[in-house]
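User: My collaborator sent over this chain with a note saying "see what the structure looks like." That's all I know about it. Can you take a look?
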Amino acid sequence: MAESAARSGDIVVIGSGIAGLSAAVSAAEELGGRSGCTVTVVDRAERNQAGGNSKWTSAYLRLDDVYEVADSFVDDVVGFSGGRTPSWYVETLVDRLPETMEWIQGHGARFRRFPTYFINSNRPRLQPVGGGEALLNALRPSAERLGVRFRYGRTAQRLVHDDDGRVTGVVVTGDDGEEIIRADAVVIASGGFEGDPATLTKELGGNADQLIPIAPGVGFNRGEGIRMALDSGAARAGQWDTFHAEPVDPRSSDPEALVMVFPYGILVNAHGKRFLDEGGGTVDETYESTARAVWSQDGGVAYFITDQQSSAVTEWKRGVLTSVKPVVADTAGELATALGLPADRLARTIEEYNAAVVDDREFEWRRPDGKHTDGLEPPKSNWALRLDRPPLLAYPVACAVVFTFGGLATDARAQVVGHDGDPLTGLYAAGECTGIYHEKYPGGTSVLRGMIFGRLAGLEAAREVSTASTAGC
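Assistant: Without extra context I'll predict from the sequence alone. Here is the result:
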């Protein structure tokens, strides 16, 4: 579908999470209300549900202070990916951080250091007061004051181009049918494909149906933004066969019903057997690999078991976000019956674990304490306490999908690039629809990059249409 080459000066932003609203507000500010120019935000959700994952996240930021990252930030983020995340991308985050944080505070956002659910972690975490939803609540009124148009209940389906390949609009669908919204620049900020079961199964494998959405926002992120750019010649980036994972209680309907206390007991699978080192590192270092290991077990479910010694973990409640109470039993047999596990096997697992615990160190829950097992496979490297103070407590644990790692390739100006590395004219992307992560998620960077690159995408799109527009923009 081709349109005329006349330039309207209009910008369409797809998605209204932190990346999309940052793009829309910064574009509107850059355009300055000039006649003939509009910014339109398209979101498949209705207003009260809009915001994607940003609406539900705690929005931890991997920062030492509001304007500062740790000295090792670039090396850490690149290192998490085994060197595959482009260093220029992370360096751009660092370079653009101060001005972006100043900008969003100018719209009313406030930040402070809060305790996290990573109860034995010492990594820096800053958080917006009110979480991710507070960022959206700061930016959305600013967008409306600046004249940004919001089209809720509309799903962007494909891009429209002129005969030269330039973007001229977006085809969207809603309850009233299909329409074309004209645009000289499009910013894709519609998240990954974590809400599309078919693509998850295709990219991740046949047991993708066992993954639990971390929050309601996941269901709105179905990958159309990524697919329309790929259909227009965009290159893929990031690791398409994996995702950001978190361990949650599958019984709970709460968003982000996390169980982040797994180092202080044992994890067993549906056969009553341990399958990983629960004390391999601090929670923030191991929660993602633990969630994926649970996903690989039969049925995609495991069971975290501890006893009354867990009361020594004084910040326990901060690491358990599920509102569903644990299963409690006086004996391993009773617990196995309550959980539907083989009683003999669970009892033997606990006996073997208890016999392997070495009593040569004091238990210290705040840091890796070296209190370990000997002669047990898999071992437990830290926080090994015998399970011999009933009653026993148990939480079912499953793997939640937060967002997918595979997405679009972009450049340092947030332009979508093709297979030859050249930018696709008029097409920008930011946030989780862009692919930079591999292997392991460097916590506290997703909202940060959505905000920084979203703002950058909006600025660059506005500058492009201002220069080329024939509408006086």
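A starting point for your reply to your collaborator: The two ends are 25 Å apart (CA to CA).
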